Amino acid sequence: MLHTVERIGSFAGLASFLGLAVFALLLFAHGRDIRRLRDWAGSAPEREAERTEQTQTIAAQRAEELRELEESRTAEHEAVEQREVRRQRREEGLPELTRGERIRERFSGFGETLSRPALLITLFVVLLLIGGGVAYAVLNSGGGSSEGGKSAKAEGNKGGGGGEKQVASDKKAKPEEIEVAVLNGTEATGLAATWGNKAEEKGFEVGAITNTTSTFENSVVMFANGAAPEAKTVAKQLQIHKVQPMTAEVSGVSNGAPVSVVVGEDNVPAEG
Known about the structure:
alpha/beta; Alpha-Beta Plaits; 5-stranded mixed sheet; about 10% strand
């Protein structure tokens, strides 16, 4: 009996030792899991901030893509509208671009040219050289300038009124400073637009392009009060021999232009 009890006690002790070992392993695993949970819970603000940053970045990229898409659609829509407007103006016998649009295109091209770094550097150097030359001339002119001014003044006084007439005659308007209306005084179609292109090629600022209510046998350049010299310049460039003051009919359709070119029957192309 005692031997049996000793054997049972030995097995019980061995089982207790194994149970304690298993309990120790479970306790170690439990502690490790608890540490992991604590670490994960402690890093929650950083994960939230990272997710927020990623969300904001994606939203900003999406907003930029939508903005670029909207700009491209707007630009395409404006281009289609401009083509339609130009087509309608061509059908009506008018220039494709209005005077304001031509001016904006010229200035935009000029601005793009000035935006080039090499050209800006060149202009800066040229202006620096010009400024240096002017400063050198002023500093070295001395008293000679006053004497030269007196002599020039004396010569001008000798010339009398003739000098004033010469100055007045030199003040001639340039073609780009003259606004010209082109009117079709015939039954032919497209004649005003054709001559408007000719006037524009000569450098004149083309205004209204339309038709007159009456028919003109001969082409004529008409001018408003004070615009006779400009009318003569236009007539010379377009090879029109007749120049006269502007009539009420022509003035009413010229849209305020000081010079009007009325194309008559003498310039209607012969039908082939």
